[in-house]
Design goal:
Elements (H helix, E strand, L loop, with lengths): L2 H8 L4 E3 L5 E4 L10 H17 L2 E7 L5 E8 L6 E8 L8 H14 L6 E7 L3 H9 L3 E7 L10 E8 L1
Length: about 160
């Protein structure tokens, strides 16, 4: 299935524009960041495969100057009708409400997609900034569960936040 067919069938937009020049859009090869070019190309190709096979819709978050300041996206891994929103932000962009606005916009997008009934956000209990986002947006904490620690600062317990759309 081509990317155009996936977008047409699922209705996932490739670009969402927010106030203050913030743009959430699908990554393109020109967005390659400072890792080795091969590492970035591998990551980009994997992200592109997610769009093509309908399992991950990964976006970059760009400021008004076109500089990448973060990433977000929809992950399809929690059952029928459920989209999970994930996000990250560059340190110099934290504390400005960007992730909250991006997540609010993507939650609204998800609510307009056929067959989507629920959106989830999963984050480590130790990541207070990440868990503040769903709380601000009216998501409900539905459970906590153990999860393997894969990064410094993780506790091994994840929160699962949910909202009906």
């Amino acid at each position: 299935m081509s990317v155009d067919e996936v977008v047409r069938i699922f209705g996932v937009p490739e670009r969402v524009e927010l106030a203050e020049g913030i743009v959430v859009r699908r990554y393109v090869e020109e967005d390659i960041a400072p890792q080795t070019v091969e590492q970035q190309l591998d990551w980009f190709r994997e992200a592109d495969r997610g769009w093509a096979d309908g399992t991950n819709y990964v976006y970059g978050i760009f400021d008004a100057d076109g500089r990448i300041i973060g990433g977000s996206g929809f992950h399809i891994r929690n059952g029928p009708g459920v989209l999970e929103i994930g996000y990250w932000l560059a340190a110099d962009a934290v504390g400005k409400g960007i992730i909250t606005r991006v997540t609010e916009a993507l939650t609204a997008v998800a609510g307009g997609l056929d067959d989507v009934t629920r959106v989830e956000i999963h984050c480590d209990v130790g990541n207070v900034r990440s868990s503040a986002v769903p709380r601000r947006l009216g998501y409900t904490l539905v459970r906590t569960e153990p999860r393997e620690i894969v990064a410094p600062g993780e506790t091994g317990t994840h929160e699962i936040w949910s909202i009906t759309v």
